[in-house]
Amino acid sequence: MSNMIKQEEMETLRELIKDIDTAMLTTLTEEGLVSRPMKTQEIEFDGDLWFFTKKETNKYEEILHDQDVNVAYAGKSYVSVRGRADIVEDLDKKKELWSNAYEKIMQTTYDDPNVILIKVTTEAAEYWETDNFTKKVAFLYKRMTGQSSISTDINETVEFNK
């Protein structure tokens, strides 16, 4: 895949997720998969997604144990991002991404040592345009029943090779 195509696909994903305020982050626990809502960062998507959390959360422990995650967005389109999560404690990065909204949500400040960033490096992303609801339902049904989804032709998968 050429860099030009990758750039084009990254811009498509940026457009699809830029106005979606909340994403669902899925991690792996000993019992299985768990998803929870996370506030989307208001920065340009460049292949990495960033989220704030605290160290005393389950997701922190889960990511330390298994870095494979999924981030799902639902808005005008549906986007599913598969990637690797890293815990980032860099004070400058926390300061750069911090906003008053986080101060209210998390009841603390960015320099609290308990506040960390989750950086999700995108490995692949799949998205569905929502202009044809019937096709989308058919695609999801085919996925659930294990039938091939090729014939529905409504989603795109983008592979990120970093």
Structural summary, described in words:
This protein is of the alpha+beta class. The protein has one domain (3-159): Pnp Oxidase, Chain A. It is built from 5 helices and 7 strands, in the order H-E-E-E-H-E-E-H-H-E-H-E. It has helices at residues 3-17, 58-65, 91-97, 100-106, 133-145; strands at residues 22-28, 33-39, 48-54, 68-74, 77-88, 115-129, 155-159. Strands 1, 2, 3, 4, 5, 6 and 7 form a 7-stranded antiparallel β-sheet that branches. It is globular, with a radius of gyration of 17 Å. Mean pLDDT is 81; it is low at 1-5 and 134-141.
Short description:
By secondary structure, the chain is an alpha+beta fold. It contains five helices and seven strands, in the order H-E-E-E-H-E-E-H-H-E-H-E.
| Structural class by SSE content | alpha+beta
CATH superfamily placement: Electron Transport, Fmn-binding Protein, Chain A
Tell me roughly what share of residues is in helical segments: 25-40%
Number of strands: 7
The CATH topology is Pnp Oxidase, Chain A
Number of helical segments with 4 or more residues: 5
| Total domain modules | 1
Topology as a string of helices (H) and strands (E): HEEEHEEHHEHE
Radius of gyration: 17 Å
| Average pLDDT level | 81
Question: Helices and strands in order, then pairings?
Answer:
Layout: H1 3-17, E1 22-28, E2 33-39, E3 48-54, H2 58-65, E4 68-74, E5 77-88, H3 91-97, H4 100-106, E6 115-129, H5 133-145, E7 155-159
Antiparallel strand pairs: 1-2, 1-4, 3-6, 4-5, 5-6, 6-7
